[in-house]
Amino acid sequence: QVCPGLRTPQVPVWLCSLSGRHSVLFSTNSLLLSNWKAERVFCLYFYTGQQEQRKATHLTIDTHSHHWEEDQSKATSSPEKKHPALEMAVRTKWAGATINWNGTDPFF
């Protein structure tokens, strides 16, 4: 029998498969499950479980920022301009979101 906490998590959790590796993307903010207004600016944590990652990577997501529009024509036409797979995965839920890696070099 499945525990009710597993059927209805108290905080948002996404299991990811990025570049053939499994990982977890989660938030400690339970309001993301029930209040759409909490989706303006919020934190997500990303953990791969790999030995080289000692702690979860802290990401700040801004769904109303328009920094991504500043030079959109240049970004879309430039083949060398690639986004990390993690950013693309986050944008499947929050299209156009700005992702701040908070000092961590983007990976995945």
UniProtKB/TrEMBL annotation:
Organism: Rhinopomastus cyanomelas (Common scimitarbill)
Deubiquitinating enzyme MINDY-3/4 conserved domain segment(s): 5-103
Protein function: Hydrolase that can remove 'Lys-48'-linked conjugated ubiquitin from proteins.
Family classification: Belongs to the MINDY deubiquitinase family. FAM188 subfamily.
Gene: Mindy4b_0
Catalytic activity: Thiol-dependent hydrolysis of ester, thioester, amide, peptide and isopeptide bonds formed by the C-terminal Gly of ubiquitin (a 76-residue protein attached to proteins as an intracellular targeting signal)
Cited PANTHER family: INACTIVE UBIQUITIN CARBOXYL-TERMINAL HYDROLASE MINDY-4B, UBIQUITIN CARBOXYL-TERMINAL HYDROLASE MINDY-4-RELATED
Listed name of the protein: Ubiquitin carboxyl-terminal hydrolase MINDY
Superkingdom of the organism of origin: Eukaryota
Keyword Oxidoreductase attached: no
Gene Ontology BP terms: protein K48-linked deubiquitination; proteolysis
GO molecular function: cysteine-type deubiquitinase activity; K48-linked deubiquitinase activity
Pfam families xref list: MINDY-3_4_CD (PF13898)
EC class name: hydrolase
Keywords, sorted A to Z: Hydrolase, Protease, Thiol protease, Ubl conjugation pathway
Entry EC number(s): 3.4.19.12
